[in-house]
Amino acid sequence: MLHIRVSTPAAAALVAVVLLLTTGGQVSEVAYGRAVAPATQPSAATTGSAYLATHLYFGTGRHNGQPPITDEQFMKFVADVITPRFPSGLTIQQGRGQWRDRSGSINREISYELTVLYPTREARAHNRDIEYIRALYCSMYGLESVGRADVNAQADF
């Protein structure tokens, strides 16, 4: 289990929303920083190192009558573009998302959440990689955006 400690109430709320959307269930008080680790064993969050957790939200619905991006296409994008930039590891979850596009329409679609954790000292280098991934996905598939959320975390592996 990975323990994440967020540094602000806004970050805690973001983590709670991400957990709620990705799991489809209730968010425990742990997401709001109210839970207390057992006294007999320190949590990983208190012994871990400073990391950033970047969450990217990839939609699969396309405009102009084009078919949705398939699981095979997305996983090829992961293998060819994302994995070389984050070879130490990543997590992908499939879900259902919705968002309002530039025309004001609500779009509901299969989506993927990609999470990568990296030491905060590597943030500048990884920012370039993350922005490249977002721009390339949009240009390849004619999409408006790939959502991004960054959360400060303490992580131990």
UniProtKB/TrEMBL annotation:
InterPro entries: DUF3574
Pfam family, one: DUF3574
Domain of life: Bacteria
Full protein name: DUF3574 domain-containing protein
